[in-house]
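Input (structure):
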């Protein structure tokens, strides 16, 4: 929150993207891919990021479906001051590349 307030106060035109899948994403992905889908203690109770940003004086938008992403992203880019965009993504969405647990960087998985 302090960073959002600083951005607003100093009028720093930083654009922030929050990819929100409601989980500790990398932990969930590791549990899914490497621990036989034994999901344990990684769902999150997140704040309303749009309301939080707005309360701090930062313009904010939320993307709830892929068809909205381009238009809202372009709109956010046009804002003169700091702007946050929260992208709601599927809980099961994975991010690649990633390093398997206990492995060296040379063993990075592409998919």
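Output (sequence):
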């Amino acid at each position: 929150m302090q960073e959002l307030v600083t951005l607003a106060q100093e009028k720093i035109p930083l654009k922030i993207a929050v990819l929100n899948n409601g989980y500790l994403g990398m932990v969930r992905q590791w549990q899914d891919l490497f621990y036989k889908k034994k999901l344990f203690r990684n769902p999150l109770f997140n704040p309303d990021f749009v309301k939080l940003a707005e309360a701090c004086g930062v313009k904010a938008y939320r993307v709830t479906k892929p068809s909205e992403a381009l238009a809202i992203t372009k709109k956010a880019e046009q804002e003169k001051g700091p702007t946050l965009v929260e992208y709601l993504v599927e809980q099961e969405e994975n991010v690649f590349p990633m390093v398997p647990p206990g492995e060296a960087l040379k063993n990075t998985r592409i998919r």
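Notes: The CA atoms of residues 37 and 67 lie 30 Å apart. The two ends are 34 Å apart (CA to CA).
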